[in-house]
Automatic annotation (TrEMBL):
Pfam families: Glyco_hydro_5_C. It comes from Mycolicibacter sinensis (strain JDM601) (Mycobacterium sinense). This is Glycoside hydrolase family 5 C-terminal domain-containing protein. Gene3D superfamilies: Glycosidases, Golgi alpha-mannosidase II. Residues 25-111 form the Glycoside hydrolase family 5 C-terminal domain.
Amino acid sequence: MVYDPTQPPIGDNVNTANLETLAQPYPQVVAGTPNSWSFDNGVFQFSYSTEHADGTGAFAAGSQTTISVPTVEFPSGYQVTVTGGEVISAPNAPALIIASNAGATAVSVTVSPAATG
């Protein structure tokens, strides 16, 4: 993706076509147990249980999950729909942070391109 590793990864030193092909959103840190995620036709979907993977209980309300959202995939920004939690990061942040709601046993997140108009 970078033509000359001795130079900064900007401008003509980046193979933008490869970057656009390989970059995609993904969960970086999950306050729970992932159920599924996908990235298809510019829409990222992710769902997870708030339970600990070892079955010893649930993460506390407000526990944070971080999702990487590459700018190259959403150059005009993105919109987020969340069930069981809320967005606490800044709009269009490259690190989307979701805090779980009190009483939520599952969280679902959908990231799609920002509405234009």
